[in-house]
Design brief:
By secondary structure, the protein is α/β, with parallel strands linked by helices. The chain has helices at about 15-25, 30-45, 45-50, 55-60, 65-75, 80-90, 95-105, 110-130, 130-145, 155-170, 180-185, 205-215, 255-270, 275-290, and strands at about 150, 175, 195-200, 220-225, 240. The protein is elongated.
Length: about 290
């Protein structure tokens, strides 16, 4: 890990209201096609929050390239950031009960098949959009850190535990942070430690706070979240992004779990030859302790 890595402190502007303000400011210079995109975004935020640039263009009657140029004109780094800006505030305001009602309204045919198909679509999007360089960088950070601390709360705790569990097979100082003792753990950690925060909409305040505290304490930070507009990104040196979409009232983590697997594999790759020795030793211990039935 580089000692002189600078920590990002620029807040990410997010939300449907911000997009509305940007559109209002740019309205005098928008072309007819761009105005069509703007109208669709403002009239259909729930739909547009999960559309690709191509799908949004089709709905607005313009080309995909026009949608991408529109996002840049509004000041976003690209279409994914604009879509995340709509998605973030939408999901934050979208209660679990509203999710359930909305899901029930949109389901056609067998709802179980529909749930699986929704996850398959999100996985396909993850495969197309995955930032392998960010995953490789996080894998290297994990390998080089003296101590790795993983933070995830509420439903995201399942992902945090999964990452912690498999990293503990390979690295001696991996910890799953608890809200009651996280500040003390970070305070007593060396400046060669790493804190990884995992959270998706609606982002948990504790995970954001522990990333902020860690970053301000001079400890390297990384996050696994749904985009650079996530509040976690502000306090992360490395951001691993993964598409996320709720499934009715459930936070479906099919795609995030797949990307967490990639992070674990990247860390193992950077560790190199010791992986085989460590796993052989673990297999011996498991056999001796009869950990598994077969």
């Amino acid at each position: 890990m580089q000692e002189n890595m600078q920590k990002p402190m620029i807040s990410k502007e997010r939300g449907e209201k911000m997009i509305g303000e940007r559109i209002a400011e740019k309205m005098p210079v928008l072309s007819q096609g761009q105005k069509a995109i703007a109208r669709f975004l403002l009239d259909n935020p729930r739909d547009s929050a999960f559309m690709t640039a191509s799908q949004l263009g089709e709905k607005a009657g313009v080309s995909e390239s026009t949608v991408i140029r529109f996002a840049s004109l509004l000041g976003f780094d690209g279409y994914p950031e604009m879509r995340s800006a709509v998605r973030d505030l939408l999901i934050e305001r979208f209660s679990t009960l509203e999710r359930l009602r909305d899901y029930d309204r949109t389901q056609e045919g067998n709802y179980l098949h529909g749930a699986i198909q929704e996850d398959i679509r999100t996985l396909s999007e993850a495969q197309a959009m995955v930032d392998t360089s960010a995953i490789e960088e996080l894998g290297a950070m994990i390998t080089n850190a003296e101590q790795v601390m993983v933070a995830g709360h509420r439903s995201s705790r399942a992902l945090a535990f999964y990452l912690f569990y498999y990293l503990s097979w390979l690295f001696p100082n991996v910890h799953l942070l608890e809200p009651e003792t996280s500040i003390e753990k970070v305070t007593n950690a060396s400046n060669k430690s790493l804190v990884i925060g995992i959270s998706f909409p609606r982002y948990t305040s504790w995970t954001l706070e522990i990333l902020r505290f860690s970053s301000q304490s001079g400890i390297a930070t990384a996050s696994i979240t749904d985009g650079f507009s996530s509040p976690l990104a502000t306090w992360s040196e490395v951001v691993v992004t993964v598409p996320w979409k709720p499934l009715s009232f459930i936070d479906s983590f099919t795609a995030p779990m797949s990307v967490v697997n990639c992070v674990i594999l990247a860390a193992a790759k950077h560790l190199g030859e010791p992986v085989t020795e460590k796993l052989e030793r673990l297999e011996q211990v498991w056999r001796s302790n009869r950990t598994y039935v077969r």
